[in-house]
Amino acid sequence: xxxxxxxxxxxxxxxxVTAAFATIGERLVVADxxxxxxxxxxxxxxxxxxEQVYVGGHKAVVDHTLCTVCxxxxxxCRFDAITEIDNRIIISExxxxxxxxxxxICPMNAIAMxxxxxxxxxxxxxxxxxxxxxxxAPGEENSGKLVSMVRDEGKRVATEHVMNTILLDGPPGIGxxxxxxxxxxxxxxxxTEPTMSxxxxxxxxxxxxxxxxxxxxxxxxKYDLNEAMADRIEGWCAARxxxxxxxxxxxxxVTEAMVAGKSVTEMFPEAEISNILIKIWNxxxxxxxx
Amino acid sequence: xxxxxxxxxxxxxxxxVATNLFNVLxxxxxxxxxxxxxxxxxxxLIFFRAEKTNETEVDHRVPVINKDACTWCGRCSRWCxxxxxxxxxxxxxxxxxxxxxxxxxxxTFACNSGAITEKPVVLGTVTKFxxxxxxxxxxxxxxxxxxxPVRVIKAAIKESGESGVIILDAPPxxxxxxxxxxxxxxxxxxxxxxxPFGLSDLRQSVDTLREMKKEPAVIINRSDIGxxxxxEYLRKENIPLLAEIKxxxxxxxxxxxxxxxxxxxxxxxxxxxxxxxxxLDGHGTGSYKR
Amino acid sequence: xxxxxxxxxxxxESKLDQRFGRCAFFVIYDTETGGVEILPNPNKDAEEGxxxxxxxxxxxxxxxxxxxxEFGVKIxxxxxxxxxxxxxxxxxxxxxxxxxxxxxxxxxNK
Lengths: 290, 290, 110
Hints:
The complex is a heterotrimer. By secondary structure, chain B is of the alpha/beta class. Chain B is built from 10 helices and 11 strands. Helix content of chain B is 33%, strand content 27%. Chain B starts with a strand and ends in a 7-residue tail after the last helix. Chain C is of the alpha/beta class. In chain C, strands 3-2-1-4-5 form a 5-stranded mixed sheet, sandwiched between helices. At the A-B interface, α4, α7 and α9 of A face α3, α5, α6 and α8 of B.
């Protein structure tokens, strides 16, 4: 079973919740799909890492010895990536979408399409199972393909080590990487916080989750920062018939545990927040059994 | 002068800093615009009473294939690097898969029989508001179920113009949406928190920015939680620390209810006043001098 | 009838690839003649749209049935419209050969 933890808004505590879930029960596979800002490895220190190269998207590169500065590429590029400066064609790597159009229409064949190979995927073992994570090289486009690769590797590792559960730590937002994380996942857990922004972003990410999967449960993190707002979010959930998995209190020990390289359930098993997390996890896992 | 407020990690207080900086500048009567570039989760407007002054849709053009004119040569499908044109010669099937299309226009050019025309598909909106204080807020909002916010972000930055101070509230992460935002900035402020997660993401943001030849400055939010890793990193890397904001439940509450601390908490108001001075005096670049 | 089986390698002893769009190889098996054709999947490393592109590839081979571990949401309707049957077979340890045997014994259907 694949469970994906996502949030819409960043910084709601998604990774801390995932870290707790990953260390409560039976051994499992954790796949960090937030390839843009992978963090979980800091808590899990995976060992015996294998490294795989991720080949990223294409970027157009001009060969100035062939280019006659005719400007055809510039006039057809719809991503505003090509400009002529001082009688020289400059292609912006950050704006280039990799569509190949310019390289196909260049009469001098002066534009090559080059793929980046600076991104990586790692997999290894951690104290409660296996861990897979990606690292997107700075500035690379996150098309969701590296996320798919991380999930595929997660499935492969799960089969190899006979583990039933794969826990996905998703990226923030609602775009491509998020869709790649939730598509086909068996369960989605949305972690939100009791703020106006939290609610607004929850609405948007919930819409995405609904489109790509059946079940989405919601956790309100740090609910006691604003209980009235937590109630409002709970009301919103009830009106939609979506499951409220639980409310977690704000607890500085979550951060303390992170600093020590542990999850809150590992370091402070007696804390109220740990108890709630354990209850939520057990509920998630048992419902999933066929 | 464009100031980007960014953070690798989500939820560190990027929006909190951007909205309050804007508020302070606005009430001083400065020419200031706030541009919400987090198009996947736009939240800035929650903090202001504002009146909508203008809304534009951001679209791209996707192909429409006239099957009667099609000669079934398959060139459009071969030219599409996104696999957005599904083509079976023998069965005479040709179909545009719109959500894969990036609107590059290559297929339209590739078609030799004039069978391809184009239609606009809306990706999101750029909306301009005027706050009670008279300063404009520009919001980029990607449509739910769209894949990439990049075009909407670019359009919002364009809409914000060039006059006075423009504060860009950047999306989280370090991939394309982040790059498109900071690329246009004269000055980048990174908001982080002093935890291992915060440090790891800060490092990735700094590496990305340095590759773009940009030197950021940092604000540490919730500076009294976690550990000293971020502080040591800043010292070692010679990155200026602009401000430390201590954790305070009152800040969390004010923020959660969609209000501004610079209106309600005097200590924070003076902290942001000082911050504005630091940013404008110390780092005002070419186009903007006070 | 031709059946496409997603394979992790280029022999019949290879294991069934659980991915459709980004599988390593397609084994095209003809149930009438017993003929086998093995194609490397050019869409394995596609940035986007590997699913539809792979459908295009196998459909051009006049395949009527596909056996794989899973199919993306995007391509289900495409396969329906082409009247190509999807067979979801979540058995990553099974070889292509054993899938062919099951096809011959008609043990695989929906």
